[in-house]
């Protein structure tokens, strides 16, 4: 792997790194604060001391068993899921947007979420609702969708704009296919699938979250390996190739990593929209960097998803899937982004 390219002078590079570290530190503090709220808030009354005591381990002398159950076994998996899943979605979006050099490119816009939903539906119908089959179907569906988009967009080399357009077309086809499948299956199964398809952390039990979180952490630890390649890809294909980067091989490996990140999240939580789209661009503006900062994107995604889940649980009158909240927030963000892009093009 080639060494990192410095954009501008050494002084500018050091300043960007320092600013990203500060932004990450602030976001981590915000994530810890929101995480504590997630552990504490709920129908069962808890005090901050009881939350802290339960986290210190069981059996803790000052904490009743029911308190330990509520904090550690019920609330903690959901908080961890929101933090890790948010970071994974943001990392996936950052890779897609860097490779395509387009802020509108993200796994959900390009159809990977719909592909995972298609795989989940097929697993549900063909394997009779077994949880392992549903998860495997969602993972395989996301990977096959990514492979299909890559093959269809690869003619005469991978062009960034064509990659996005092909993804949007595949997404529309899969959305129609999913609607057709939902209309063909029984009502009870369709209701379950629709709730999962909205994107929810209600299924974030300890048994589902810990294996998925461990897998995602391993994938996130691979991100530093790809940072240098992403910085070179930001320069454009010709310049990246001239610096010695094996373009197709590095781009395929990074896309595979991005697809694995979003597919693993979707197997547990369903397709959660707009976090992958918004988090990298918010992080870029916070850091004020020319490219998309990966670490700050991950921290932003974690804060966004955890904050949206708290809103979904405790702010709106009825508890709704977190995907509904992220769609509302993301829709407003997408409208603002499109208006800004149109003004820039004039």
What's the topology here?
Layout: H1 10-40, H2 48-55, H3 65-100, H4 112-126, H5 131-153, H6 160-184, H7 187-197, H8 206-220, H9 223-233, H10 237-242, H11 247-269, H12 275-287, H13 294-315, H14 322-345
Let me know the average pLDDT: 83
Class inferred from helices and paired strands: mainly alpha
Helix and strand element order = HHHHHHHHHHHHHH
How large is the count of helical segments?
A: 14
- Please describe the biggest sheet, giving its number of strands, its sense, and whether it closes into a barrel: none
Query: Which range does the strand content fall in?
Result: under 5%
Overview of the structural elements:
The protein is mostly helical and 346 residues long. The protein has helices spanning 10-40, 48-55, 65-100, 112-126, 131-153, 160-184, 187-197, 206-220, 223-233, 237-242, 247-269, 275-287, 294-315, 322-345. The longest helix has 36 residues, at 65-100.
Task: Record keyword descriptors for this entry.
about 350 residues, mainly alpha, about 0% strand, globular, disordered N terminus
Outline of the structure:
With 346 residues, the chain is mainly alpha-helical. The chain has helices at residues 10-40, 48-55, 65-100, 112-126, 131-153, 160-184, 187-197, 206-220, 223-233, 237-242, 247-269, 275-287, 294-315, 322-345. The chain is globular.
